[in-house]
Amino acid sequence: MCRRCVARFSGVGKMMQEEGQVMGHGREGVWVETQRRSTCGACNARSSCGSGLLSQFSTRKPHRVLIHVPDGETWPAVGERVVIGIDESAFLRSAGLLYGLPLISGMLGGIVAEQLAGTGALAVPLGFALSLTAGLLVVRWHAARPDQQALYRPMLLRRLGVDALAIKAV
C-alpha cells in the first residue's frame, strides 16, 4: 500500500479483503479479477439456507475491478496474486445510506401525505414514490462527489507473488 493510503487509513478499523489476480494493466492502474465466493461453506445451516440454495443455481462469474496504482509505486505483474481491500466502515456507511435513506424518506413522504390528504387517498402512494425518488437522487448526488468516490474505491493492500500456472494461462 502506498504511503498516502497508509496515512489516510491509519486510523481506520478493519479492511474488507479479497484475494485476486492481476489480469492486465490500464491507464490508471491494474485490472484485478476476483472470484465470488459463497459464505455457505462454513455455515452449519447450509442444508436449510435459502441463500445457499440460490447460490447453487447461480453462475460464478469472476469480477474484474480497476485498482488505482499511485505514482511512484511499482505495478504488479500480470498473473501476480494480490490482496485488495476496502475500508469496512466506509462500506457499511454506504450500504446504510443506499438502503436506509430512500426507504426512510419514502416512509416519511407517505406519512406526511396521509396526514395531509387522509387515508385511502391516491396522495399517499404518490407521496411515498416521490419521496423515495428524492432519497435515491440524494444518494446518487452523494456518491458522485469525488471525495466520496475515493473512499469506496478498492485499493491494493499487498502482493502475494506470481502464480506459475496463471502466467501460462495468460
Automatic annotation (TrEMBL):
Keyword ATP-binding annotated: no
Pfam family of the protein (one): RseC_MucC
Record keywords: Membrane, Transmembrane, Transmembrane helix
Residues that span the membrane, as ranges: 90-113, 119-139
Presence of the UniProt keyword Transmembrane helix in the record: yes
Name recorded for this polypeptide: SoxR reducing system RseC family protein
Species: Cobetia crustatorum
